[in-house]
Amino acid sequence: MLRDDDPPARQVEKLIRINAVLIDRIDRLEETRGSAWSVFQGAVALEQEVLARTRDLERAMADLSQRNRELAVARASAEEANRSKTRFLRAASHDLLQPLSAARLFLSALTDTAMDDHQTELTDRLGSAFESVEQLMHAVLDISRLDSQRIEFNRQPVPLDDLFRRLAAEFAPVAQAKGLRLTFMPTGAVVDSDPIFLRRIAQNLVSNAIKYTQRGGVAVGARPRAGMCWLSVYDTGIGIPAVDRNRIFDEFQRLTHDSATPGMGLGLSIVRRACAKLGHPISMSSEAMRGTVFRVGLPPVGGADATARLSDAALPGLRGRVALVVENDPDMRRGYEMILRDRLGMVPRLAGGTAEALATMGEEPPDVILADYHLENGDTGFAAIEALRAAAGRRVPAVMVTAHRDPSISRSCAAMGMHLLEKPVRPPELAEILGRLLA
């Protein structure tokens, strides 16, 4: 290759060698292709073909660029549509779950009244219908969040014994209605996970186990193995055939089409998505007609074995304790009043916002505060609890109730030392939480 900084002698030497190479190539072409005229014709034809191919390539590149621009626009539109869907579901979740939560509280209060057999059957069927609607709404909201690329998790130490107690309060009536034994093994394990999504994972596994078990029981426990704490759910149900094990984690997949077995086939799909996002390995083993076990691997937190276990017997009675409820929805306030007063024997004080709560409290602080996150005119449960605690001069135990699945709410609750309760509110779970807070 000629260089501008080569001395003249060097350039001449290079040119001579280049000329020799070119002459040698021409000689070979003449030997193989004939005369110089044939070579010239071949070169002209080759040049024309190169030009034609170049024009084709330029047209293809222009078409590809146009397609890329169209795909970029379509992708941006799809991402915006997905963000809009997520924003809509997040905003609508409160309005959707609010009346459902109030209806559940009223229905629970109704079941405590004297009813004949026909009325009892109607309330049971209403309860089942509410349960189905609630599960479907939770599933849709969970899948929407897990499909979002911007999902945030609030990872923190989670005592599994606390999780087991809440699950026991939630599922014991369901298992009892089917004549099944539901057992939660005591454990001192503490794991690193998102408490809301870990609970959702466990809820879906326990619900599925009860759903597909007709006799025997379901057992839930935690066992250390290979540096992980494995949350395990055992059942004595129908088992999962080998041909179905690859599809059970897909949406709308059910092992049976029996109408007596409720569900939409979304529970295990949510489990798979949540475990994948959190980095929790999941495994399953099953034997047809003998039972199934699902295991979720959770990273343990140091010193987990030293975690003290608070037994149900240690929970104090709630009778006579004062609960200040801050809720802007009149139906929800009435539902809380009936459950707290008639079922739990507490003394409810009701307020619609922060200012009314301060006036209602007066000089006698309540034993516990129950506040809804979303109040009127920009008011929030956080503002209400902060103001009430400041007026009381101490950190009054508090429960934040919300339909919003927002990690920032969970982080704020943890920072303020309050419990987070998701809507719809289940009276047994509410009673269990209040009992532990007032211990």
From TrEMBL:
**Molecular function GO labels:** kinase activity
**Coiled-coil region:** 12-81
- Pfam families the UniProt entry points to: HATPase_c, HisKA, Response_reg
What keywords tag this UniProt record? Coiled coil, Kinase, Phosphoprotein, Transferase
Q: Name the catalysed reactions.
A: ATP + protein L-histidine = ADP + protein N-phospho-L-histidine
Q: Which InterPro entries match?
A: CheY-like_superfamily, HATPase_C_sf, HATPase_dom, His_kinase_dom, HisK_dim/P_dom, HisK_dim/P_sf, Sig_transdc_His_kin-like_C, Sig_transdc_resp-reg_receiver
Q: Which Gene3D superfamilies match?
A: 1.10.287.130, 3.40.50.2300, Histidine kinase-like ATPase, C-terminal domain
Q: Which PANTHER family match?
A: HISTIDINE KINASE, TWO-COMPONENT HISTIDINE PROTEIN KINASE
Q: What is this protein called?
A: histidine kinase
What is the organism field in this record?
Paracoccus nototheniae
